[in-house]
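fwd from M.: "can u put these together and see what the complex looks like"

so here's what she sent:
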Amino acid sequence: MANLIKIKKGLQIPLLGTSEEVLRGGVTSEFVRICPKDFHGITPKPLVKVDDRVKAGDALFYAKDHEEILFASPVSGVVTAIERGEKRRILNFEIKADSTIEYVDYGVKNVASLSSEEIKSSLLSAGIWFLLHQRPYDVVANPKKEARDIFVTGFDSSPLAPSYDFILEGQEKDLQTGLDALAKLTTGKVYLSISTKTKSKALREANNVVVTEFDGPHPAGNVGVQINHIKPVNSGEVVWTLNALDAALIGRLFNKGKVDLTRTIALTGSEVKQTGFYKMIIGTELSSIFNNNVTEGISLRYISGNPLTGRKIDKKGVLRAYDSQVTVIPEGDDVHELIGWASLSSKRYSAGATYPTNKKKYRLDARVMGGPRAIIVSNEYDKVFPMDIFPEQLIKATLAFNIDKMEQLGIYEVAPEDFALCEFVDTSKLEIQRIIRTGLDLLRKEME
Amino acid sequence: MKALRNYLDKIKPNFEEGGKFHWLYSTYDAFETFLFVPNITSRSGVHIHDARDSKRTMIIVVIALLPALLMGMYNVGLQHYMAIGQEVSILTNFLFGLLALLPQLIVSYVVGLGIEFAIAQVRKEEVAEGFLVSGILIPMILPIDTPLWMIAVATAFAVIFAKEVFGGTGYNVFNVALVARAFLFFSYPTKMSGDQVWVRTGDTFGMGAGQVVDGYSGATPLGQIGVTEATNFSEVTLTGITGQPLSISDMFFGFIPGSIGEVSTFAILLGAIILIVTGVGSWKTMLSVFLGGAFTVLIINIFAQNAIMEVPPLYHLILGGFAFGAVFMATDPVTSARTEKGKWIYGFFIGLMAVTIRVFNPGYPEGMMLAILFMNAFAPLIDFYVVDANIKRRLKRAIAPSATNNNK
């Protein structure tokens, strides 16, 4: 029987636009773009030039500080552009995809017969090592460091998040292979967390892992929260993290012998006319699922990911590397609401009780809903932060970049996403995820 | 609404960089965001935000203060007409109080907000809303006959030296309204305490002129207890301003002389309900202040040597500024302890200190102000120890596993 951990703090934001659990088919696009910015903590060095031909699984670029970490092209075709931005930073690699994808053959392998090193080098050379993240710093895992344990989250509790049960249907074997591979990568344990709502047997009865069951509102599905409750990260320790969908992608490499970065994604959000699930390769342009399927006449915000941690993309944007969800909400920059502070409107949503709230679902836009202030209200962050950490004090220490204090207060245990709800409820409207991200990056520079 | 929006858009360029009124940008921004929710959308991090902002939070506190303010206004009139021996309608009583208090509210807001706007402009920041609450609190905790110039001076002093020098709303160590009161209390003690300041005996803008009746005494019940020569509390009869005995219900509903806001415990509790239901005020702080107060009184009662020490808990909690301080002052999130455990300790000691000062220092019949200011200074220390426990736990956890690893 799985261990049950109850999470009391947190918040399930009642948003409109949950995805219907129907698979609406596959989506491809002529051009596929991979954005190195998705892979946090690495500096990309291109291995291809414009007009080069690549196969799916060929490396597009590598990490400057870790030459062994390669990043695979998800499709075969011709590199048509390497777009650069400020300071010549690479924004994206654009590939004109073939209609039938040609894969590099990495050979079907039996994970059970492979050593830890062989698994590591398979993932690195196939260019999908990026699926593993590490704490501290929440960056692409450093393959040269030992992972104390590996934590896999088996559900997503974010607002409008798709059900992993649904996505993993048919991928049960890949998932188990992935978990087996992960088990070889660490001398510690692989912890798989599931929700009380998880039905999938592949998750519930997964082998080779320690299954822990979580009950409670978001952020119960965040791997950071799970680590904090199962076995917290101490100073000097490293753990690797990923979600069950990415574990299945790892399994797929060994079972199929090729890099197949096809994801099943949910199209969600209040402005989507027909929600549903689509199969697509990462980097695929999303315009075909948006066309004629979103509210017209108002300005919209397109997000790859969920409304709390996703990345803002435009209508022609692509599916970003780690996302299994695409969301469309109103932008709200065309709304002029009169005397909002006195509003009794039932359209406004607040986690606290300063607005009349009922149980219905809300259509929230991207407005910040107030100006930035100093931190005034207390106990606001704590209510949505189910970790044994004082969020406000940690945020303040991070703002001041007081390294000692940050360490003492648990900076190594957190990722920006853990603060997403704090940022949502914040009366002072601070950009808390950005603050934590900057703090982690600076700290990493100091420490490594 | 559309016309207003268009007008704002039309005049906005004047206030922006290079416009001729750029030196008033913060002021423009304050009014614009007061009228319209800013349509700025999120640039990083979360894409959606909670509808609660600083303005909403402050306005809830102001709403919570209204029952006490309205009851206080009514009581100002009531006490005045009792003092001059006239029977008038409830409405007249209220109107007198309104007229008496309005100039004080206006002075406090104009001076305080004026300074806030100017400093926000200098710092190129948005105007913070903190003073919306402080501005209403300051007149509420002063005697009704406080001269307007004193309110102006005290407000300016508090806003500049208790708040802005520390960095503005959110950074102050001491409660701004209490600093204003403390400033006046120590600078002009005769105008802040004694028997003569709590009831307006003169007229207000010509309204309610009359002669004070014989036997009038403006002493507050707490003041009476403070100077009593009786050895047992049972011998003390608390009286109203015309010598009529006061019942518990008079004291609870607020028909006694005192500062405008503090007299009606009933109205204050209504405010407390608003604060607790909306989650704006911490019930932990409020409850622990009352617990701390009641606990201390009970201890003192056991060792009672005189009438003051014999005053039962209920009197302490409904008289003077105790309830008002507990509900509206101690819960100020900026100057209070910020951790949840810390709030229990912080509140408890406020109650304890307030009662101790009242009982053992007859010079200060009202201990609440000093107790809260004192604990404001200690709040960071309380938090330090609460957070330190978490830090120690983390250190211990880090040491434990590595020690076992070394043993391998």
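replying to her w this: The domain at 263-342 of chain A is CATH 3.10.20.600 (Ubiquitin-like (UB roll)).
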